[in-house]
Amino acid sequence: TKSALSEQTTPRALLIDDLYGGVSGITLADQDLDDGQLGGTITWTPPTDTVTIVEYNVYFAKSTAGAGKSQHGAAVPLHTNALALAADFEPGSFTHIVVYSNSSDAGQTTPSYVVLSDTDASVSSVHFTDYDLDKGELW
């Protein structure tokens, strides 16, 4: 502090602890094998220190910063690190999944994210030879 006479010669110190509450390891194991569609379970690893966190919000977004985000499902409570995504979900212009941690006082402003990856599988060149000589029956 400073008075009209002089400045304090022995200042006080205060340790500032900047808590980071972001999740890591976000994954979506896409089990919907149709091209352009997603389905499966979104999972993440919680932050090391969860003392202030009460829930997570999961969104589909158009950037790593959460631009154009659309929330998927309701808020996920602490200690639940997964959210189901029903099959046949079409992401459209969404390119990322973003997860925000929330405390009882405020929400995280910079999300954790993962780039969407669509797994598709199709069969081609399928051939079947019918050895049954009866009409209308296959063998």
The N- and C-terminal alpha carbons lie at a distance of 94 Å
Number of helices: 0
What order do the helices and strands follow?
Answer: EEEEEEEE
- Output the radius of gyration: 26 Å
Strand proportion: 25-35%
How many β-strand runs?
Answer: 8
Shape: rod-shaped
Note poorly predicted spans: none
What portion of residues is helical? under 10%
State the assembly state of the protein chains.
single chain
- Would you tell me the structural class of the helices and strands? mainly beta
Q: Can I get a quick summary?
A:
Helices cover 0% and strands 33% of the residues. It has strands at residues 24-28, 38-45, 53-61, 70-71, 76-77, 82-89, 96-103, 112-115. Strands 3, 4, 5, 7 and 8 form a five-stranded antiparallel β-sheet that branches. Strands 1-2-6 form a three-stranded antiparallel β-sheet, with no helix packed on it.
Structure report:
This protein starts with 23 loop residues before the first strand and ends in a 24-residue tail after the last strand. The protein has 139 residues and is mainly β. The mean pLDDT is 90. The strands form two sheets. Strands 3, 4, 5, 7 and 8 form a five-stranded antiparallel β-sheet that branches. The chain has strands at 24-28, 38-45, 53-61, 70-71, 76-77, 82-89, 96-103, 112-115.
